[in-house]
Every structure is written in C-alpha cells, then in structure tokens.
Specification:
By secondary structure, this protein is mainly alpha-helical. The protein has two helices and no strands. The protein is flat, with a radius of gyration of 23 Å.
Amino acid sequence: MRIQSADRTLGSGRGYGEARAVAQAKKIALYIVVVFVLYTIITSPKRSAELVGVGFEGVSSAAQSVGDFMTELVK
C-alpha cells in the first residue's frame, strides 16, 4: 500500500507554483498602482493635492463619527 502526499500550500488547495504566480501577480498590480499614482501626481499636482485633502477630510470625519458613537455608547 502506497500513500501519496498532495502538494498543497497551507491548505489552500493550490500548488506551490500557483501560489507563487498569485503572489507575483499581486506584486505586479502593486507596481502598476504605484506608477499610476506617481504619474497622476506629476501630471496634475494641484488636482492630486485636492484629492489628498478630500481624503484626509473623509478620514477625519469618520474618526469624529466613531468618537461620537463611542461617547454616546458610554453614556
């Protein structure tokens, strides 16, 4: 009787080569996003600054809302 072992990576059902290909694809996607962001900043810095300001306002508003929620929860 012969027992064969499966080539699995952390129980994901993928082989080592397939998991490595997915990791490589994620790395390539990240590089593309970084290049796109840099291109956008270089070509239109004013608009990029506006977008960053809007993003920070959104994060600040969300944090304020969470703080208000926690304050009301404690009362």
